[in-house]
Amino acid sequence: MIVLILGICISPAFTRDRLPIGPQQSQAAHRILDYVYSGNKEAAKNKLRELEKLESAKELPPISALIVLSAYSYWMHTASYSSQKELQQLKSEAQELATKALKKCEHILQRDPNNALYLLIQGGILGFLASLAVDESPLFALRQGYKSVKILERVLQIAPEITDAHLALGIFYCAVSNSPAFVRTALKAMGIRVSAGIGLKHLRMAAYHGQFSNVLAQIFLIRFLSPYVNELHREKTTIFIALERRYPGNAYFTFLRNDEDLAFHSEELFNNKRKFEIEKKIRRFNSVTISDRRFINLVKWQYSLFPTARTQAEMLPDIRNDHPLFRYYPTYVETLRFKYALEKEKKLLVEQDKLRLMQKRCLQLLDKSEMDNYKKSFFSWHLRDGLSMD
Known about the structure:
mainly alpha, 19 helices, 0% strand, globular
């Protein structure tokens, strides 16, 4: 039933404005998000500055703060940065903008404590700041995240039509349900019931009914939906296809879909239809940013696993073009290639020791990458399943 309604709900054309803002702000916000998810970071930043100036000049609600949260969450979530220095710059920019918007929210909420729009912005900012602190101070992030949850739950009590409030709630509940035992114990002591089911319900509301949060919620749904349950796997596939069609120049979505199938559903990847689709996408992908070029290269590594992959220069991965977070990936692909060959020749038992050494090398490279612990856990899971590791 879920999959049947996705074709309608996932399309931005069916998302009506629910926030009390004017058409000029709304259109500008949607344009910025399209730049973000298309991979054009510079254009997105320029338009963000224009929106901030408009809001300041006309004393409008700081919707730009919500858009900043979506943009910077996406850039950090997808590693859309060229170095740790740029990552720190992104975090610094986001914190500066968030702090400024928080002050404005506090000023308005002192006079009007039930203003749902400003509560939404305040709760969203606190949730975002909590996400920045997860690796360095998980308990601080937990407390900050809980503050965000209480504010956003209040938003939904006051104005249930503001479906963007569901995004941070969904991320919080899904993330903490997969967190270490000490975090869940702390939550229990605070009287918080942790449930992935509650989190997925919130994420679906934002993904299929959100005004500005729909794409980011879909990206997080991809992460939290189980690949082992048929209906949930079909839902993920539908989201992947919708994102690839809506943002055909963004290689990240194709990389993520291929990586999912390599790990859990290789039979859905290795067929002529997908092979031709990936070939067309490689030819069409733009190279606007460093991140795009690196994800295009990762897609080429994935494509090289097809037995009849084309060998023209435009289809071959560049061994000099690596990604600081995915330096393990060429080794992962070569280990998969070796594993597939052994399976075809029925020599898995004969070459067990060599395969184990290659698997161990993949995990070592992943562990040394510049990913945060959250991403490492996610891609380690994919790697282990793809290589059939215990």
